Each structure stands twice: as structure tokens, then as C-alpha cells.
Predict the structure.
Amino acid sequence: MLKIRKIEAWNLSIAVNLFGGSRNEGVNIDVSWDGRWAEKSSIISSNIMRWLQVLANVKKLTFTSWYPFQIMLHDFSNLISVRPEPPSLVRLESLKVVKHFSVDVSDEEVNTVVEYLLRGSPMAKVHITRRA
């Protein structure tokens, strides 16, 4: 499993760990940055979308952090922003999202991002879990 553990806001570096060999059967994206994410949200969102395009053949995709969704929602609500093409996750079988209790976001907002990510993808199981 490929695990993208951290993105730092200002230099957008990532730490990547490979688990289970060279095949990308699953990817775990865990993003964190400092509190000024809105200033860089379009850049970070663009990078997240590029990663998802590169990872088009993964079978399992897990977001253990709510931040990527929060950034995408911010971009969607910005009328000036141009929404990028959704990723084409052609082999996706499972999408997991961890929604933290401390994050104030509606189910409708969660569904907006999930539907966006699943466009152009086969039917995938979606698991949304809540964590403190």
C-alpha cells in the first residue's frame, strides 16, 4: 500500500511509504499543514488532483485526514475557481473517508466531494467513518 503521509503547506513536500510490494493496490492519503491553508488551497487542491490522476489504477483509496476534502470544498465554493476534471479512478473498488467529529461539515458536503471523486469511476464501495 502506498501511503502519502504529510503535505506541508508552504513547500508542498510529501512523504511517501510503500507497503506490500510495488503494485499500488491501495493508497492512504493523510494530509496536514499549518492553519493558513486557505491561502494555498488552490495549489494544494491542484496537487491532490494530480496525484489522483497518477494513481488512477488503485483499487483502494483512503483519506485518513479531512483536510483534502476541506480544500476541495473550499475550491468548489469559490466562484472564481475553475473545478478541475475529476480523476478517472478506473479500478477503484473501495473509497474510505475518515470524518473527524471536531470537523464541522455536513453530510451533503461530504457527498459533494465523494460524488466528484467517483465520476468516471466504476461502482466503488464507499465507507465514511467518524473518529474523535
Summary: Residues 2-131 form one domain. Confidence is low (pLDDT under 50) at residues 6-22. The beta strands are 2-7, 14-18, 26-29, 60-63, 94-100, 125-131. The first helix runs from residue 37 to 54.
